[in-house]
Structure formats: structure tokens, C-alpha cells
Amino acid sequence: MTATSGLTRCAGVELGIYEKALKWNGSWEDLLSQAARAGYSFVDISIDETPKREARLRWSPAERAAVVAATEKTGVPLTGLCLSIHRRIAPGSSDPAMRAQAREVLTQGIDLCADLHTPVLQLAGYFAYYEDAHPGNRQWYVDCLRYGAEYASRRGVLLGIENVDGHDIDSISAAMAVVGEINSPWLQLYPDIGNIAEQGYPITAELQRGEGHMLAIHAKDVRHGEPRRVPMGGGIVDWDEAFAELARQQWSGRLMIEMWNDDADDSVEQSAAAREFIAGRLQAAGIPIATPCVPVGAPASDERTDALPASLERLREEVCAGNLELPKHGLVAWTGGNLSARDPETGLVAIKPSGMLYNEMTPEDMVIVDLDGRIVHGDRGPSSDTASHLDVYRGRPDVMSIVHTHSRYATAFAAAGKPIPCVLTAIADEFGGDVPLGAYAPIGGHAIGEEIVRSIGHSPAIIMDHHGVFTVGKTITKALQAAVMVEDAAATVTIAQGLGDLTRLPQSEIDSNWDRYQNRYGTKNASEGVSQ
Length: 532
What we know:
The chain has helices spanning 28-37, 51-54, 61-74, 96-116, 137-155, 172-182, 193-199, 203-209, 239-249, 267-284, 310-328, 386-395, 408-416, 425-431, 446-455, 476-497, 507-519; strands at residues 13-18, 42-46, 78-82, 120-124, 158-162, 187-189, 216-219, 253-257, 338-342, 349-351, 367-369, 375-377, 401-405, 437-438, 461-464, 468-473.
């Protein structure tokens, strides 16, 4: 029986995030929950040169168990550990004492991976970063990794060499030379696409060199001379070329987005935006974002012991159907936009998965989260707008469904930074005045939801400056209605503005129409002069 024969084959990639992309607020549960809110399936952590992270190698059994408990509670595993401390404690050092210490650090790193249920230990490709070059540096480095591969085989941990941003192992080709020399199945590659670009190597040729040996892959953006802290999409990496080659290889595995936002208050938003960017490039290359594999022989979803309550099964179906209405009405393009709804029985929320095409969605793809953003049920990452939805639900107990779109005419008002003026009775009917404009807020975190609660008033719709449309309702149907009608109103107003100046309805007429539509429309009293 092979190592993978107990699993169904899952094509595509899972997306994860580096711990330094998120702000540390004091607990592992919080950090992992941040990753989930940003739409990620896993987190990679670091043992680096800082005393705080180096001390993780000496965690007690209880401290290790607490981290594992946090992964189980949040559903976000730690799947990789970056042994960055080897830059200072150099495995290729010309000092025998330093080499012995590097070997001990490697042993401790492998043990920590085993205890944290972390399958991959990443090894930086630095021989002796802070020392002058010595002819023996590479051989000493190889000797250390040869020892590590033998020890890792006994602990069940895979080792992956990272091509680095400096010298030494600066390419996949150089890493493959070490892999071939040691010739152990326990030592493979954990390549960094950004470092390939920063070094100026051909991406396609380098990825071809690593074919069949890449355990997982780093995704970070870079500029020449700037290997860190470059916003995703703002650098020189040719993602289309890289992902086209991975698609040709039919590579599947874990793609870890590497960023450094740990000092930023909007780290979740930045991480979510990076995920959306990478997901879009993967989809353009035809690479699906995979769900976690299910063990062969596991009960079908409707037979599992964690079967959903009937109310949540209905909610998933209704939320999926509601999302499918968005493209039918021309309110979304590609994978943009989302709809969520709150279950009145449990208080949980079902929302569209992140980065998924509408014509591929089923009720089982909808993700169930609690109001703190913890994934309760679902194999996919929730929408990158999940935090915004949850803030609205927390701030508005009357709201039971939320829609977000980038519909063409309404979003034109967002681009212009203008509310939709109440120049029609239909606008007064639906929205009770101007469709308000909310202040600009970063995508993916709490700022948008907080601004919606602050600025939407009694309107069921709001235009978010330089972003798009959010609508709310007491039911999915009402939230959808508002999304359809705000686009219709925006289109009419846009056309009318080309015909001349527009005059806003008097406030008394707005109030009268709003009262009639909200309280008498659809009843026997909808029109005056009618009697029974």
C-alpha cells in the first residue's frame, strides 16, 4: 500500500498563508481564525532568528498540545514549518561547533513538526549566510541535510529545500542537485516562485527542473532587489507563465502565499486580497482550488456523524440558489460578488465560497461560519468578504441576508464616489431616499461591515466608495430584490443624467412614497380610490 493509496485523488491546489502575513494578537486560535477569515485552508509557521520564534523549538509537551488543540478547534492546520534559523545557525559553517548546533536545530525542528502534526519542514538554502565563503560550505550543508533526511524518515516528516533570495541554493536547479545527491524520498523541494523571478532565472525552465519533486510551493511577489514586502500583484513575477507550467505538469498540492503584514492592522484584508489575486491567476490557468481530500471508505456526506441540522441543510440550498440568481440578473461577472444568509435557529451564516465559478456551485459548496468567523462546516474557504458580512449581522440583528455585487451601473456611482440621488418615486419606494454612499474601506476585514452599519440607515442598499454594492434584507428574496432594484435605478439615473439636470424629489414626497410602499404596497390598501 502506497502512502497515498488511502486517499481519493484531489486535483488542484489548496491555498495557505504564512504566519507573518497576519498580526499576532496573543493566541494561536486567533491567528488561525484570521487565516480562515481571509479564506485560507492552512498556515505555515516559522522558526527564525528572533528569540521568541527560536524558543518554539523548546516548547513543552503541554505548549505543543495547546497549539494542536487550536488547529483542531479552528479547522486550520499547520502544514509547514520554515526553519529560517538556519540562516544564523549555519549547517554549512566552517565552524564544527556551529555545524553541530545546526544539526541539533534540525533535529528539534523535525521533532516539533511531528508533535504539531505538521507534515513538511522547509529548509532554507543558505550554506553559511553570515560567514565568508569556504570551499567546504556546500559539502557541510549536504552532510547536515543527509542526516536530516535519515532522521525525518523515522519521524514521518518530509523535508523541502527552498531556493533562497541570496546566494548558495538560489534556484530549483541548485536544490535538485542536492536532492539528487542525497537521494532520499524524505528530502524534496519547497520552491519559491518569487525568488526565481528575483534572481532573474527563467520560471518555466526552473519549474520543469523540479517536476515530480515539489512538495509545496511558495507564492510571493518581488521586485529586483526587493525579495520581501512587495504587495501581491505589484511585483515582477509572471504568474500566468508560472501557473501555465504547473497546469501542464498537473501539479496538485499546497500553495502557500508568503507575505509580511504582521505589523499591519489590516493584515487580514491584505491577505484576503492576495488570495483573491492568486485565485484569479490559478483559475485563468485552469488550475482548480481543491477541497481537502476525503479518506477512501469514509461515509458519504449525508451519512457522516457531523451531519448538519435540517435548518442548515435548507439554508445551504437557499443560499446556493440565491447566489445563482446574481448572474441571472447580470449583477456579477466571473467569480465576483456573493450572497449570504443567517439561520434563525442556530444563528450561523452560510456564504458563497471564495473564488468559485457560479455555474460550478452546489449547495454542498456553501461554507457555514459562526459570527466570530470560525468555519463550522464546509471544505472550501469562505468569501473574502465574510468578515464584512459578519460585522453587519452582528451590528444589525434584523438583517438575515446580505448581497454584495459589482453590478455595472451602481458600481459606476461607486467609482465616481457619489450616492444615487432620489429623483424617482421608485427610488423613494425601495430605498426611502438617496441610496447612500459609504466611505472607502479596505477589502476583506472589518472596516467595510462597520461602515455599512454606520452609514446604510434605513435603506436596504449602500454604495461603497470605490468598491461596489451591498444590500441587506430580512430574507434572501428581499436582499436580492434590493440588489436588482439598485442596479435598475442606477441605470435609469445614469441615462437621465445625459438628458439634463435632475431634480431630487421633495423630502415630503420621498417620505410619503416610502410609507406607502413599505406599509400598504401588496395589500388591499395599496391604491387610493379602491374599496371592497
